[in-house]
Structures are given as structure tokens and as C-alpha cells.
Design a protein that fits this description.
This protein is about 55% helix and about 15% strand. It is globular, with a radius of gyration of 17 Å.
């Protein structure tokens, strides 16, 4: 059986490196690549791969919400997060979204192949460092879950916030999300009200701090 994979990462050098390593494996094939979350969801629905290797910090739609959409809109597709973030917020939210595995980008490629084969058997796979993060969250119950962007805003509001933070105009956001300009304005006002933030600059800082987008 050939294992079909999609690589989702906004850095081409990472995608190229992963593709080269994966395609050396006799039973693995990269069927598509994506540089942002929206494209990743579309490709997952189109190709129905066995595995999506998902970065978290991607433009247009972050990896957490892209994973959630893939889980909702496809059947049998599994997601493995491959991220530089070991912060508990990202780990827990990716697992809540439905990811079957979570590795750090400093992991050896051999660990990724183990993760792929593990999740295909229906078992989750976490890097050792990530296992520590999960255990601390559930065993020690770190200070009663501080509200995060994932608990405060709806998925649509997070999409709008990310696009605002990435400098998209209201018209561009409406086009990307296939909604009306008035609806974008409504979402932006709801976001500001919920966060008690009333400037685009502060919204952008918040989005970066919460990991919805980055400054690169």
C-alpha cells in the first residue's frame, strides 16, 4: 500500500526538504503541497490523502483551524502537526482540533516516519517533549485554563482576525471567505467587542501573540 501525503507549510524550503525525504521511502508518495491553510483544506478534500503533515503558523488560515475543517469535511484523513511550537496552547488546541500526532521541527526524519506509521494504525503519536506538555496540562492542571483566542472567538471570527492581522482589506477578506463586506464588518466589530481591543494595530499584536499569524 502506498501512503499518500500532503505537505502543508508556508516555507518552500521545508516542503522541498520533506518531499525529498518522504519520496525516498518506497511506500510513501507526496500527492500535493500547500503554503496556506485554505489551500490545505481544499487539497485534502480533493486528494483525500492518508496523512496531512501540517504546520501551525500558516497564512490565510492557521494550522489549528485548517485541521478542524479537514476533520469536519473529509473522512479518513489524518493530520500530523509538524511545528516549531511546543507551547501547551498550540499542542492542546491541535489535539482538540483532531490532529493524530504532534512533532517538533527539530525532530529527526526517522521520527516522522514512525509517527506516520503509528497514526495509520489508529494510535496517536506525540514527540517526547510534547508528551511532557500534555501530561503537565492534564495532570497538574496548569492555572485554570487562561482564556485563549480559541476559546474566546468562533472559528469564523478567528479566520477574519487572522486575515485582518495579515493586512487584508475588508473587500479582500470578503472575497477569500466568500462572505459579504457587511458580514466582515460585523465580525470585526464582534471580535473587537469580545477582546476589548479597538484598533487594527492592537488586533494584529494580539493575533501574533496568540499564534494565529506571524511577523515573517
Amino acid at each position: 500500500m502506498i501512503i499518500k501525503l500532503i505537505i502543508a507549510d508556508d516555507h518552500k524550503i521545508v516542503r522541498d526538504g520533506l518531499r525529498a525525504l518522504i519520496e525516498r521511502q518506497p511506500n510513501m508518495k507526496v500527492v500535493a503541497e500547500a503554503s496556506n491553510g485554505i489551500t490545505t483544506v481544499k487539497l485534502a478534500k480533493q486528494f483525500l490523502p492518508d496523512i496531512v503533515i501540517m504546520d501551525i503558523g500558516m497564512p490565510d488560515l492557521n494550522g489549528v483551524d485548517a485541521t478542524r475543517k479537514i476533520m469536519e469535511e473529509t473522512k479518513g484523513v489524518k493530520v500530523i502537526a509538524l511545528s516549531m511550537h511546543s507551547d501547551k496552547r498550540f499542542v492542546i488546541e491541535m489535539l482538540k482540533a483532531g490532529a493524530s500526532g504532534y512533532l517538533l521541527k527539530d525532530s529527526a526524519f526517522e521520527e516522522l516516519t514512525v509517527a506516520i506509521n503509528t497514526v495509520l494504525t489508529g494510535q496517536p503519536y506525540l514527540s517526547p517533549k510534547i508528551t511532557d506538555v500534555v501530561l503537565k496540562e492534564y495532570v497538574h492542571k496548569l492555572p485554570e485554563n487562561k482564556p485563549s483566542v480559541f476559546s474566546i472567538l468562533t472559528s469564523r471570527e478567528r479566520e477574519v482576525l487572522q486575515l485582518i492581522a495579515e493586512g487584508k482589506s475588508t473587500k479582500e477578506i470578503a472575497s477569500i471567505l466568500n462572505i459579504s463586506i457587511k458580514t466582515v464588518d460585523t465580525h470585526r466589530q464582534q471580535i473587537m467587542d469580545k477582546l476589548n481591543i479597538h484598533s487594527i494595530a492592537e488586533l494584529t499584536k494580539y493575533a501574533i501573540r496568540e499564534g494565529l499569524t506571524s511577523i515573517d
